[in-house]
Amino acid sequence: MKPAWKLNQLLGLFLESPCPLCQRSQAQAVCVSCQQQIQRYRCELVDTGQAGQLPIFAWGQYGGALKRAIAALKYEGNPHLAEILGRWMAESWRSTNPTTDSVIVPIPMHPSKKKQRGFNQAELLAQHFCHITQLPIAVYGLERIRATEAQFKLSSLERSQNLAEAFSIGKPFLHKPPSRPVWLLDDIYTTGATAISAAQTLRQHGIHVQGIIVLARTEAGMKGKF
């Protein structure tokens, strides 16, 4: 039996389906009205890292319609939303980062959680991002070897402890480390605990991590530093 989200995708090929955010009937992944509301949360894309810190390239602020869209993508069986969101990320990236000398590594999900959800939203966003930017993607550059608790439930210290030794270098990078710098890619940036842990794992194998690209930053992420 196909998962519900796959059935939704198949039906969407033949019928107008409800917008996952407002339930209005429409022929696109998200109706025009909701697209406009999401765009209101787009933020200035600047690198905020300082000496010894990773730059953060964020498309938007985590709130309102953008927060709702991320929830619909991750928890309500709407993986097709990653296409438009990944495209928006890519278009903003191309307008400010013309370089093509990078490899994109999506933050991996533990296999048990990925099996439960049916997909990894960071991987989907990265695929659509790379389709537009033409940057190479290394889906298996990192592996998540330890299941962790949901980060939103934890304090900053608990987040770091929760992610200690959660990642391992992936077999492709283990056999042949990339010659280009790596940009990590994830859906949400809060305190940086996930990015720190992932970057440390790559750096332990001599891989240069240039920064992290995210769809949205929370208020804590706006104020916090790596």
Write a brief structural summary:
This protein has 226 residues and is of the alpha/beta class. The protein has helices spanning 4-12, 32-39, 64-75, 81-96, 111-117, 121-133, 156-162, 171-175, 193-203, 219-223, and strands at 17-18, 25-26, 56-61, 103-106, 142-144, 167-169, 182-189, 209-217.
Describe this structure in words.
With 226 residues, the chain is of the alpha/beta class. The chain has one domain (4-223): 3-Layer(aba) Sandwich (Rossmann fold). Helix content is 41%, strand content 16%. The chain is built from ten helices and eight strands. It has helices spanning 4-12, 32-39, 64-75, 81-96, 111-117, 121-133, 156-162, 171-175, 193-203, 219-223; strands at 17-18, 25-26, 56-61, 103-106, 142-144, 167-169, 182-189, 209-217. The protein has a four-stranded parallel β-sheet with strand order 3-8-7-4. The longest helix is centred in the middle third of the chain and has 16 residues, at 81-96. It is globular, with a radius of gyration of 17 Å. It starts with a helix and ends with a helix.
Approximate strand percentage: 15-25%
Shape: globular
What is the mean predicted local confidence, pLDDT?
Answer: 83
Structural category: alpha/beta
Rounded to the nearest angstrom, the distance between the terminal CA atoms is 44 Å
Task: State the CATH topology.
Answer: Rossmann fold
Number of DSSP-assigned strands: 8
